[in-house]
Amino acid sequence: MTAASEAVAVRRARLEDAEGIGRVQSECWRATYAGLIPDSVLVRMTPKRQARLWRSYIRSGDLAGIIYVACAPEGVVGFASCGPEQTGRFPGSGEVYTLYVAESLHGRGLGRRLLRAMFGRLRRDGFPSALIWVLDGNPARYFYESLGGVLVAQRSSEQWGVAISESAYMWRSLSDFR
Ligand SMILES: CC(C)(COP(=O)(O)OP(=O)(O)OC[C@H]1O[C@@H](n2cnc3c(N)ncnc32)[C@H](O)[C@@H]1OP(=O)(O)O)[C@@H](O)C(=O)NCCC(=O)NCCS
Fold first, then answer.
1. Taking a C-beta distance cutoff of 8 angstroms, is the pair 67, 74 a contact?
2. Ligand 1 — pocket residues by CB below 6 A?
């Protein structure tokens, strides 16, 4: 995709965005998580299957949190979702559950714009702070660090039959985020 990032609108997701969200998510997972999670999981994650899932999330209104898309004239090129922090370890904090930008548009400010939209939304919903969990080994952690996120927690679990380690980056004052 060759859209100039200034032609990209960041807005609340609509039902008709589900297909684009599924496409961006499948592409990003394969590009980002190969070698970090089992190939079988990546193979199962098809654009069609993910679109079906996101259609149900958008329709339900809150199942996957508040969903925003970055939308170019040719379609969805990024998306993000947010809501209350899910572990209960950071009471009163918000959480960004997903953040994905199409690989061909990395480095053009869309990740920051989506994050800003998420933080703005969380602030309006009464959350002064927010965090994001990122898989260890994903270079996105440096993106969060460069945007002021502070490492506040780590966790390990078993998912898809393998050990998974994640780190949480937090922004304690969303009103300071630019
Ligand atoms: C992480 C991601 C959302 C960043 O989006 P992006 O549109 O490429 O980032 P931006 O262009 O908005 O970058 C904003 C700033 O962060 C910096 N940055 C971006 N990615 C970075 C990285 N991997 N390491 C260090 N800095 C990074 C940019 O240089 C930029 O700094 P500047 O404003 O001083 O120039 C994107 O790379 C992505 O979708 N990755 C794959 C999916 C993923 O891992 N999502 C996160 C799951 S937890």
1. no
2. 28, 32, 99-101, 106-112, 132, 134, 138-140, 142-143, 146-147
C-alpha of residue 111 to centroid of ligand 1, in Å: 6
Residue 97 and residue 131 in contact, taking contact as beta carbons nearer than 8 Å: no
CA dist 10 → 116, 118, 164 (Å): 10, 10, 31
Closest C-alpha to 148, from 127, 132, 126:
132
Distance CA 100, CA 102 (A): 7
Report whether CATH 3.50.50.60 matches the domain 7-176: no
Q: Where are the domains of the chain?
A: 7-176
What are the pLDDT digits (tens) for 44-99?
999 999 999 999 999 998 778 899 999 999 999 999 999 999 999 999 999 999 99
From CA 71, how far away is CA 120, in angstroms rounded?
18
Q: What is the pTM of this model?
A: 0.95
What is the distance between the alpha carbons of residues 173 and 126, in angstroms, rounded to a whole number? 12
Enumerate residues 6+ apart whose C-beta is below 8 A from 120: 174
